[in-house]
Design brief:
By secondary structure, the protein is an all-alpha fold. Helix content is 88%, strand content 0%. It is built from nine helices and no strands. InterPro entries: DUF4013 (IPR025098).
């Protein structure tokens, strides 16, 4: 599939699976409204020097956002898997499985970003913070960022942390798909997401309630859209 086919399919895909989209949009709206309201309460309570209330509201807001984020992230991994298999239906909703999915995604991201961070620290310590060191660290970070992108796809495909953490294989997958194609797809997705985010941001300046609802709705839509595009991209490996 070329980039145009991937993006056009990913744009339509969420609407082909309206039941799952609505359920997760409701979760997104709850997170957007309750989480946002709790965090706003923190600011108000803190301004009133009510530290206990601020801490309680902050805990509730963070908890809501974490739970919602885990559910959406974990479901997104299943969407990647369906995209790899080029299936047009939606994954089933399995809360336990999808929370575990999200935890695995976090572990993969942590490993792939902590390694270049450690390498960067070692290089800075041994070589100093010169231009050459900066360039080397930048290249290593970019390589691992692309590898992490492929690692998430490998996690979805094989349902195995071992396969996802096979760094050499993940880097090899980048060359199979094509670095330019991966980059172009990410840029296309980013541009669409940025346009939606700007529109929602403008609306939120006038009405926080409507903005919060739209943030939940379009946040979930973008999660479906992005993960579908990622899965279709990796289906060519």
């Amino acid at each position: 599939m070329d980039i145009g086919e991937i993006i056009s399919d990913a744009i339509v895909y969420p609407f082909n699976n309206i039941k799952a989209l609505i359920i997760y949009m409701i979760i997104g709206i709850v997170c957007g409204l309750l989480g946002g309201a709790s965090l706003m309460g923190v600011l108000l309570a803190a301004q009133g020097n009510n530290v206990l209330a601020a801490g309680g509201l902050g805990f509730i807001g963070i908890l809501i956002l974490i739970i919602g984020g885990l559910l959406i992230s974990g479901y997104g991994l299943d969407i990647v898997k369906f995209g790899i298999e080029r299936r047009d239906d939606a994954p089933g909703i399995d809360i336990v499985r999808q929370v575990l999915n999200a935890i695995k995604v976090f572990i993969v991201g942590f490993v792939y970003y902590i390694i270049p961070a450690i390498i960067g620290w070692l290089l800075s310590t041994l070589l100093g913070k010169g231009i050459l060191t900066t360039i080397i660290i930048f290249i290593i970070t970019v390589v691992f960022a692309f590898a992490e992108f492929m690692a998430i796809c490998r996690l979805a495909k094989y349902d195995s942390l071992g396969e996802a953490l096979a760094i050499g294989e993940a880097i090899g997958d980048v060359s199979k798909v094509g670095m330019l194609k991966v980059l172009a797809t990410i840029i296309a997705v980013f541009i669409i997401a940025l346009i939606i985010a700007i529109v929602i941001g403008v609306i939120m300046q006038y009405n926080n309630l409507i903005g919060g609802v739209l943030f939940g709705v379009f946040g979930v839509y973008l999660a479906f859209f992005y993960n579908r595009a990622v899965g279709l991209l990796y289906s060519q490996v």
